[in-house]
């Protein structure tokens, strides 16, 4: 819980940096440091989420729990941008700047962490029977492919988050709330296609097919969102919206496909490990 509270405090103090301040370099450095620490927490959160999901799956509970967790993550992507845009406009109206979204979300997150700490029961989901090194994991080709595809999905999300707003400023005059609605498109697409891919994952033996479909969809997204110079089409808002739908489709396929295949690789690795130990037992 302690690291969660630290993260929420980072979100809260992120609003202190005034980008229009006289000492712009100092404010930008402050925001950069805060965002860097925040990204480290996001990585830690994703790691814990995946580990806990795998523990639940190994115990035989709902095997589609990963897709369900991803749906809730997508709901945050849906609600976050338009709500942040509304709070930003509210701050501008009352002359308090862009800090309002950070204060509101940070305070809510702090209280949520405290409530979860006292209400959620802890339970040991698995027994550690041995350690596997990082290089032992990478000796499995399937796991290496999963790692590369997952890195690709993270890069797509980061690229879209950091560049889309700047791109929209060049092609349309949108209010912060409308910009949030454009971001909302990818979140809705992510939620909808998560359900589709989780059902297809049960019927496809090689889950990498789903991930490859996701990568191809993301490639089309990056092709038309600009669009690329080879395509003689002027940047249009409708192309951005279509690209956001394809991005949600692609990321959902990548994440569901890699986790489903990763679960399969993990089970096969465990069965191999058990077989070797049985064979070596006198």
TrEMBL record:
What SUPFAM superfamilies does the annotation carry?
A: MFS general substrate transporter
Q: What is this protein called?
A: Uncharacterized protein
Q: Which Gene3D superfamilies match?
A: MFS general substrate transporter like domains
Which GO molecular function annotations are given, in alphabetical order?
A: transmembrane transporter activity
Q: Which top-level group of life is the source organism from?
A: Eukaryota
Kindly list the GO CC terms recorded for this protein: membrane
Q: Where in the cell is it found?
A: Membrane
The transmembrane residues are 71-90, 102-120, 132-157, 177-197, 209-231, 237-260
List keywords of the entry alphabetically: Membrane, Transmembrane, Transmembrane helix, Transport
InterPro entries in UniProt = MFS_trans_sf, MFS_Vesicular_Transporter
How does the record say this protein sits in the membrane? Answer: Multi-pass membrane protein
């Amino acid at each position: 819980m302690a690291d969660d509270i630290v993260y929420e405090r980072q979100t809260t103090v992120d609003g202190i940096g005034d980008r229009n301040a006289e000492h712009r370099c100092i404010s930008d450095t402050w925001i950069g440091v805060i965002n860097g620490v925040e990204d480290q927490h996001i990585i830690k959160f994703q790691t814990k989420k995946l580990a806990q999901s795998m523990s639940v799956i190994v115990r035989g509970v709902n095997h589609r729990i990963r897709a369900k967790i991803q749906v809730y993550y997508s709901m945050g992507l849906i609600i976050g941008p338009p709500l942040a845009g509304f709070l930003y406009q509210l701050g501008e109206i009352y002359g308090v700047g862009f800090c309002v979204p950070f204060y509101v979300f940070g305070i809510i997150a702090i209280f949520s962490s405290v409530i979860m700490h006292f209400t959620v029961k802890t339970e040991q989901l698995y027994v550690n029977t041995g350690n596997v090194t990082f290089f032992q994991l990478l000796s499995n080709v399937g796991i290496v492919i999963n790692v590369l595809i997952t890195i690709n999905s993270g890069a797509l999300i980061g690229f879209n988050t950091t560049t889309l707003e700047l791109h929209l400023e060049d092609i349309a005059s949108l209010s912060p709330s409308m910009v949030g609605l454009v971001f909302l498109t990818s979140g809705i697409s992510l939620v909808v296609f998560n359900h589709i891919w989780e059902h297809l994952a049960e019927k496809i033996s090689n889950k990498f097919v789903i991930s490859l479909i996701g990568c191809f969809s993301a490639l089309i997204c990056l092709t038309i969102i600009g669009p690329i110079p080879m395509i003689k089409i002027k940047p249009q808002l409708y192309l951005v919206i279509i690209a956001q739908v394809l991005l949600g489709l692609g990321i959902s396929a990548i994440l569901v496909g890699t986790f489903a295949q990763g679960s399969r690789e993990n089970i096969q690795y465990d069965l191999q490990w058990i077989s070797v130990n049985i064979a070596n037992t006198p």
